[in-house]
Every structure is written in C-alpha cells, then in structure tokens.
Amino acid sequence: MAKAYVIGGANIDIQGASNHPLVLQDSNIGNVSYSFGGVARNIAENLALLKDEVVFVSAMGNDPFGKDMYQYCQSLGMDLTYCVQANQTSSMYLAIMDEKNDMALAINDMRILKHIDQSLLETVFSKIRPDDILIMDTNLDKEIITYLLDHCPCPIYLDPISTTKAKKICPYLDQIHMMKPNRMEAEIISGIYLDSKENYKKALQYFLDQGVEEIIISLGKDGVIAADRNQQFWMKHAFVPMKNATGAGDSFLAGYIHQTLKHANLEERVRFAIASAILTVSSEFTVSEYMSQDAVNQVLETIEMEKIELC
Q1: Where are the alpha helices (DSSP H) in the chain?
Q2: Among 195, 197, 191, 242, which residue's Cα sits nearest to residue 221?
Q3: Integer Cα distance of 148 and 158 in angstroms
Q4: pLDDT of the residue at 205
Q5: With a cut of 70, which residues of the chain have pLDDT below it?
Q6: For residue 244, what pLDDT is reported?
Q7: Residue 77 in contact with residue 4, Cβ under 8 Å?
Q8: What value, to the nearest 5°, has the Cα angle with vertex 191 and ends 166 and 207?
Q9: What pLDDT does 93 receive?
Q10: 156-159 and 178-179 strand pairing
Q11: Closest CA to 106 of 93, 92, 119
C-alpha cells in the first residue's frame, strides 16, 4: 500500500490571550495555552487520523515540549524513523492575542529545521517507492527545497504556507505534481487577481502551463477552484459557521491526499477535502478531535456542494 511521506515543520504553538486591552512593557492578566502545530505536522496528524500510512520527517527538540510532541505523534501511529530529535529547543510559535482575540504580536523560531539536511533526505528517498506521495511545506530552507524537488523519486504535493514563503517555489513549479495555494498565494505566484470567473480560469491555466499537474486554489467562503489536464471546475459549498479557521487548509490537503491514495477522481478528492476542512473549522482545535473517515463522510452527506464547470 502506498505511503504518505510528510516533510516540514513541527511547532509548539504557545498562545497568550489578554483579558483586557494590552498594556505594553507590563505584565497582562490572561490565559496561556499551548498545542502541537506546524503545517506539515498538522497534515501528518490528519492523515494518521484518516488511517493512512504516514512517515513524518521533521526535527523536534529534546526539551519537555518536544518530547511530548514526539510521543503524541508516535501514539497516532506515525512512523517517526526519520524524525530528528535534536539537542536544542523545539520549533516554537509564540503569539500574543489582545482582548478581542486578535493577534497583536507573534514570534516564530524554526531554526531546528536546519537538521533536515541533504543526508537525511538521501536516506528517506532510498525508502520511497514511485507510487508513494511526498507532501512538503515551505518552512524548509530554499537549498533543501531545491534538493528535494530535484531528487524525490515520487510525486510531490505542496502547501505554499504563506505569500512570503510561496516565492521559494516559483522557479520549480514544473517539478511539483500538485499544489494547494490559497487565494493570496495563488495571486502572488501567478500575478493574476482572482476577482472573477474568467480570472479563475486564467489562474488555473497558468499553473497547468507551468507544469503543475493538479492545482487546487482555496477561496475561503467561496469554495475552491480545481484543475488537472482534463478538467477545470469551481466547487462551491453552503455557508458553515466557523469556530476556528486555523488548520482548515492543512486538513483540506490531508483529505485530498487521503482520497488520492484511494485512487479517487479529482471531483471526489475535492469534495472529501472540502468536507475535511469543514469538520476542522467546526472545531476549536487546529486538528479536529473528531477527524476520521466516518466523520468526514457524515459532513459530505449533510453539506450541499455545487460544481461549476470552468472549461
């Protein structure tokens, strides 16, 4: 059975939320929480919960946070054979939220990912089969991204993560089998403003012309647009109240890959991916506590979706 190899960041997300308007240079009373995050790790967790075979390649610290995260990922059934446990602080994302729960400030420390080097990737690539899938995020150094794209022996699926980090992969679109940018990331890469049905078609065709075999662009509440070499369509869905939008894109990509591993067609993959994202935004957590094949199928049965051909 084909495996999903997921390579990228594994963060400790620490969030402090103030009970009152923030006072700078002072101690503010509020609530502090932490959770396990990172785009690649979130995708890997969703795939593990969907009962796919997942090999997670990342770097975690030997601090208490990192040890907890390693044990948690292992408990989900992820293969952590190639996950580095480094003698340093884990990757951290520290966010300060104001009294309205809007982010006032954040600090991101992902230096530990430098442990994902060429030597490690050579070992991983020696185990990958052509029918496996490799999923990567763009938290990796540009040199490692280049090496990965040049030498990976199986199809590569990519999440650009942000408009800034998306620029790393612009020269290599012909080496990416599938990618899932959001609206802003797609606009930055293509130079096409996604403000009309006509421009939706132009943007999808741009990525296909650059060599991407499957392109899925998420449009938030407006659904997604999708294309491969045979079809282009816009999949809209009914309005869904959100508890937390964080992690929706990660679960979307995991749902898409889950269906790809089952050899589903493009429309089936997109529908399942949308349902996976809806399940996530209905939860307070970055990865839904209810994530499973059955739960996603229940969403599919209850949420109305409309397919609009773009060809």
Answers
A1: 39-49, 64-75, 118-125, 142-151, 163-166, 183-190, 197-210, 248-261, 266-281, 293-302
A2: 242
A3: 12
A4: 97
A5: none
A6: 73
A7: no
A8: 70
A9: 86
A10: parallel
A11: 93
